[in-house]
Design brief:
By secondary structure, the protein is mainly beta. 0% of the residues lie in helices and 52% in strands. The protein contains no helices and 11 strands. The strands form 2 sheets. Strands 2, 4, 5, 6, 9, 10 and 11 form a 7-stranded mixed sheet that branches. A 4-stranded antiparallel sheet has the order 1-3-8-7, with no helix packed on it. The radius of gyration is 13 Å and the shape is globular. The relative contact order is 0.32.
């Protein structure tokens, strides 16, 4: 079991950047696949990015490829999401999640943070 807390959300203008962080606590952070999901108001939860336990493999949803970068620092028990060229359609609550395998399906993840709001204005 991993406890997760996101931070770094806020209000940003279109074209701007934000970096989200996800702080993990527990003994097994480095053994988990980590992912970011987002959920716009009234919409289903959407896959954003995933990263293998050692950071060697990353995966991105089509809507964020080329703009977002996922990374992790196992020594700091922290997951990151660098978001560039933000668009109003990126507005959502962003969640980090921990699981045992990389997946774009939110149902495959065991542990979730409470989320952080990202709002992109036009």
């Amino acid at each position: 079991q991993v406890q997760l807390v996101e931070s770094g959300g806020g209000l940003v203008q279109a074209g701007g950047s934000l970096r989200l962080s996800c702080a993990a606590s527990g003994r097994t952070f480095s053994s988990y696949v980590m992912s970011w999901f987002r959920q716009p108001p009234g919409k289903e939860r959407e896959f954003v990015a995933a990263i293998s336990w050692d950071g060697g493999r990353t995966y991105y949803g089509d809507s964020v490829k080329g703009r977002f970068t996922i990374s992790r620092d196992n020594a700091k028990n922290t997951l990151y999401l660098q978001m560039n060229s933000l668009k109003p359609e990126d507005t959502a609550v962003y969640y980090c999640a921990a699981g045992v395998r990389s997946s774009s399906d939110y149902r495959e993840y065991r542990d979730w943070g409470p989320g952080t709001q990202v709002t992109v204005s036009s």
